[in-house]
Write a structure and sequence with these properties.
This protein has 689 residues and is of the alpha+beta class. The protein has three domains: 246 residues, Distorted Sandwich (Beta-galactosidase, Chain A, domain 5), CATH 2.70.98.10; 193 residues, Aldolase class I (TIM Barrel); 198 residues, Aldolase class I (TIM Barrel, Alpha-Beta Barrel). The chain contains twelve helices and 38 strands. The N terminus is likely disordered.
Length: 689
């Protein structure tokens, strides 16, 4: 393993509702049920053995969220752990603490939970079995397997029996898994019964009271990523990405699994406002990480997607010394922190999708003087952002990684965007016998590969922004240099995707993909109809919505993704991108429904100003937003960037009205969003009374 996992230190402060004293359901004769509730008592989980089959159940206000569901593991050789098990004992604990994020949606995170450890052992008395450790928060829970194995013995996990039983006609929002395009699919809205194989985070709204539930995992380390497979109607079963030998996970000695997480909220925004995923990860193992710097950047990137530049060499090669210096000067003049340059290194010519074995990560093209470019960036107070596209060839990258990071360290490059463009299941590694093996992007080998990259980068004070990644499970807490990642359909799909991202896309991401953590979506496109208004490829938002994305979509690094010339044509709207920060003291999702709209407010870290972003789907929408998140007794100047008259994502996407008004925490902001539109607001703090 690449990270030792220790128990979170216990605080001495008590947490209420530690145990459930009455059974959650009528017990069958002889059943031994063990239950625990959240600190507020509303959420509860119980474990038992039904005729030797380990089971669990989750309730919220006494109603099932997850009905009786299976637990267990199956191995290639050693005895399976999914039947003939009984509960042999339990232990309980509670925890209450706060901790600080070095960067993030908020500075202070509160960790308040109750914990139950239930020991399942084989009826034969041979000691085989597992412990389930569950931590229950007010906003959800996480449980993991802790499996004792004699020293020196190996376990090959071929199947995890964990399931999540939910009503068949719950409304589900999901993207397909085990398909070629990794996580990069348009979110589907279906009854749960129509779900096939889905990625997590997986979000659903239950019938009846409409409670929202999100299933995901936390602390994915030295294990295979989990997808959900509906094998029986209404029962989603954990399915682990297999290795090339058919085994999902190899383990030597005792081991733990990632946390299986279930977030629960009455309103959809409650899912966003949860820190459950972060709280289930281990604390920072890197020590002083003051060198990890949030910020905004521009780059040689969008031009390749709209085909005004190329990654490979030739007459319109993007990564030239001249172009890079132009972008650096633009960044310096407009207050941006960094410049990303893609396509600078040898290997892009020809079919780069299949060129993974020939990429060099230290040798530039002749028309890119990396020494001169890095020196110019330093002189202008801008950091050069590195780029490593692997085309999914893990071994080629690992063989050059140390030298590549050494080069960047010498040049003063402190952030690197990595890429793993390859079909899902087609990552390449060369084994110890020289044989080519194929791996999943979220298989155990790839999961561990990313940790190796993070550790090598951290030794040189370099942060990593991963594209085509393994999904985010909160490891930014443990490795704060994992500063962002992709892991969903980003802005580039608007350039060439069939179809491009629909108007509802952001209101989907906020309640699904974004529950895992930051996303490098690359917002800020101003030329929305680059191929003409009737082209199938265009940005399906208004211009005001592109501004709102800087608040709604969280990432500590945000790109102004369009070409510099397009910003020069609209300096008034561009001012919001120049002003908006990327690191926050507080963040609050105020209003929203999955796939319809979302309103988010954030306070800049170390300052008093607040920012608000609101986006809608294809429907025009009027929202009244109370400003009670602002500091009482203080006046603010609201700088409002809203959809202009007759704005519409398809017919008239460009009008933006900019207006200013004085507001206080007692006011209500009336927001009119055009179809596919949005609003961005900066609240500039005045003197407190």
């Amino acid at each position: 393993m690449f990270m030792s996992v220790s128990r979170v230190a216990r605080a001495v402060m008590p947490v209420v509702a530690l145990a459930v004293t009455a059974p959650l359901a009528a017990q069958e004769a002889g059943e031994d049920r063990h239950a625990i509730a959240s600190p507020d008592g509303r959420l509860a989980v119980e474990f038992w053995s039904a005729d030797g089959l380990p089971r669990y159940r989750v309730t919220y206000d006494g109603e099932d969220v997850i009905s009786a569901s299976a637990l267990g593991l199956r191995f290639e050789v050693a005895g399976n752990l999914d039947r003939d098990l009984e509960i042999a004992g339990e232990s309980r604990d509670s925890h209450q603490s706060t901790w600080e994020l070095p960067w993030g949606e908020r500075r202070i995170v509160h960790d308040v939970h109750n914990e139950l450890l239930v020991s399942y052992r084989h009826e034969s008395g041979d000691g085989r079995g597992f412990d389930i450790r569950v931590r229950v928060f007010d906003e959800g829970l996480g449980f993991r397997y802790e499996v004792p194995v004699p020293d020196g013995e190996h376990r090959a996990i071929v199947d995890e029996v964990t399931s999540f039983a939910m009503p068949q006609y719950a409304t589900a929002w999901w993207t397909q898994a085990a398909d070629y395009n990794r996580y990069e699919y348009i979110t589907r809205t279906t009854p749960l019964i129509e779900v096939e194989t889905a990625h997590t985070p997986f979000t659903a709204r239950l019938p009846g009271d409409g409670v929202h539930v999100a299933i995901h995992e936390a602390a994915l380390v030295d294990y295979s990523g989990m997808r959900l497979d509906q094998q029986r109607e209404g029962v989603l079963t954990a399915e682990l990405a297999p290795g090339p030998d058919g085994v999902a996970v190899h383990k030597d000695g005792s081991f733990i699994t990632p946390w299986r997480t279930i977030q629960v909220a009455e309103e959809a925004v409650g899912l966003i406002n949860s820190d459950l995923i972060l709280n289930l990860n281990e604390p920072n193992v890197l020590g002083d990480v003051s060198w990890v710097e949030p910020g905004k950047y521009v780059g040689i990137w969008w031009g390749m997607h709209i085909r005004t530049m190329t990654w490979g060499s030739g007459p319109i090669h993007g990564a030239t010394t001249e172009n890079a210096i132009e972008y650096i000067d633009f960044a310096a003049e407009n207050g941006f922190d960094g410049v990303l340059v893609e396509g600078w290194n040898l290997g892009w010519d020809g079919d780069w999708f299949n060129n993974g074995a020939i990429f060099s990560f230290t040798r530039p093209y002749p028309d890119f003087d990396i020494e001169a470019v890095a020196g110019h960036a330093r002189d202008r107070g801008v950091r050069l952002i590195g780029h490593h596209e692997t085309s999914g060839h893990l071994t080629n990258y690992e063989s050059q990684m140390e030298a590549a990071f050494d080069l960047y360290e010498r040049l003063g490059v402190t952030q690197v965007k990595t890429g793993y463009v390859a079909d899902a299941g087609d990552l390449i590694r060369i084994d110890e016998n020289g044989e080519e093996r194929r791996e999943w992007h979220y298989g155990q080998y790839a999961v561990n590969h990313h940790i190796r990259v993070l550790e090598a980068a951290a030794e040189r004070h370099i942060s990593i922004n991963t594209h085509e990644p393994v999904k985010d499970t909160g490891l930014r807490r443990t490795y704060p240099n994992w500063i962002s990642r992709e892991g969903a359909r980003g802005q580039e799909f608007n350039a060439w995707g069939v179809p491009p991202n629909p108007p509802e896309h952001i209101a989907m991401l906020a309640f699904t993909r974004m529950l895992g953590g930051p996303m490098d979506f690359t917002p800020g496109i101003f030329n929305l109809t680059f191929n003409g208004p009737d082209s199938p490829n265009r940005v399906q938002t208004t211009l005001a919505k592109q501004l709102a994305l800087y608040v709604v979509i969280y990432s500590p690094i945000q790109m102004a993704a369009d070409l510099p010339g397009h910003y020069a044509m609209n300096p008034e709207a561009f001012r919001f991108i120049r002003d908006v920060p990327t690191d926050w003291e507080h963040s609050i999702a105020l209003q929203g429904e999955v796939g319809d709209f979302v309103v988010t407010a954030r306070q800049e870290r170390g300052g008093a100003d607040w920012y608000l972003g609101a986006v809608t789907d294809e429907e025009a929408r009027v929202l009244d937003v109370p400003l009670d998140f602002l500091e009482a007794g203080r006046s603010y100047r609201a700088e409002i960037y809203r959809d202009g008259e007759d704005a519409h994502w398809h017919d008239n996407p460009y009008p933006v009205t900019v207006e200013t008004r004085a507001v206080t925490s007692g006011d209500v902001l009336h927001l009119a969003l055009a179809a596919g539109g949005g609003v961005a607001v900066r609240f500039v703090a005045g003197e407190a009374e």
